[in-house]
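Attaching the record inline, Q. Sequence:
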Amino acid sequence: MTILLFHSMYGVRPAVRETAERWRAAGHEVIVPDLYDGRTPETEEEGLAVRDEIGTDELLARAVKAAAPYSAGGVLYAGFSLGGALAQNLALADRHARGLLLMHGTSDVADGATAASGELPVQLHVADPDPYETHDWLTAWYLRMGRAGADVEVFRYPGAGHLFTDPGLADYDAEAAQSAWPVADAFVAELDVRSAT
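Structure, as predicted:
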């Protein structure tokens, strides 16, 4: 199965590459587009500055361009935080999308949006509470995704930081990460089995 994995506002960090390598070792083709042209900000402020300098419209355009060569064959879209928001936008618009794995981030769902692929399997892993993904936001997001035709599972990790799966960041929470990754990996494996039938 082909997986498109999008980085957070911190760029293509070691944790992103390690995730890609783990999935490659499981037999998947993993594409990691570098939407920041090699930049890897060290702080949240720097990451936000790079994101804002490029602009969300341009980041989405870069993500669409990166996905174009693969989408017709059926792709699992995945992303960390900002990358999750981009992955969500692509997955909802792609009639060949096999699924959507969101680590730490979501995007708005337009009223009347419909998953182009029909019923889209979606899994979200998020800190609880999360300053970027508040309870009210996630409740509304969950309902809108359901109306759009997504089959959504949400896993919350009490007390964890926003990017709790990245060992190189202050948000890292080893216990939460060790709980999240086996569930996420099982989701990827299940979608691979579905795609083979």
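The chain has a mean pLDDT of 95. The chain has one domain: 2-196.

More tomorrow.
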